[in-house]
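Q: Convert this sequence to structure tokens.
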Amino acid sequence: MSELQQWINSYLIKWGLVHDSANIWDNLVVLLLLIVITVGIDYTCRYIFLELFKRFAQKTKNQWDDLIVERKIINKLMHLIPAILVYIMLPLALPKEEMPTLLGVLQMVCSVYIVAVVLRFINASLNLLLEIYNRRESMKNKPLKGFVQIIQVIVFFVGGIIIISILIGKSPATLFAGLGASAAILMLVFKDTILGFVAGIQLSANDMLRPGDWITMSKYGADGTVIEVTLNAIKVRNFDNTITTIPPYALVSDSFQNWRGMKESGGRRVKRSINIDMNSV
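A:
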């Protein structure tokens, strides 16, 4: 790479640039060449791997590989290739001895981009996993969305800490240690999320609620079918097609009526009082 820089530098001097300007421009030309090369490698790898995986998915009867192609999971992962290549080859185009500030800034941008791509890939993979499990009959009525959401919150929280540590030049361990002192504030900010997560575990472990159950909770005006169970809310479609939103921890702390047993039995027992005048008998 140094020989390439010297060759470009000599040509720039022949074209009339002074030596100092030629030293700057040859670095920029090499940087542009590296970007073009990495973009070409990115398109080549994506074309090769995607075509191979698409052919593999078409030959199998599984649904998960078709969903990977439809949700473009591999595309999101392939964005890592150019970023990693640029990060590795930046010192070749911008030597640390000549341009330490510019090299540091560009490497920091590449690092943040790499973390963002990884977060996006993990988030898409979790959503794909949730969709695959929801298509299974045994898992269809399990409130898994709340658990996936808490994992996504944790992943993005850790990713945010890593990005901040890159921007300020500190170790992530130092930031996590500092957050320990702010645990009370974090508990206050994420109170509903923590309560919803704990309530979701209790509802799932005790099989108290499933999507599709008919529940009645007069305190919140809910009398209908559960259509969605998330980390922070449970949505109930009432008989008049209105939507009632209930916090998950309310179902654990308060009482509600679940009509699942009645629906599974195929019948309903109705008790009514009939008053008869004995003189008329």
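The first helix runs from residue 2 to 14.
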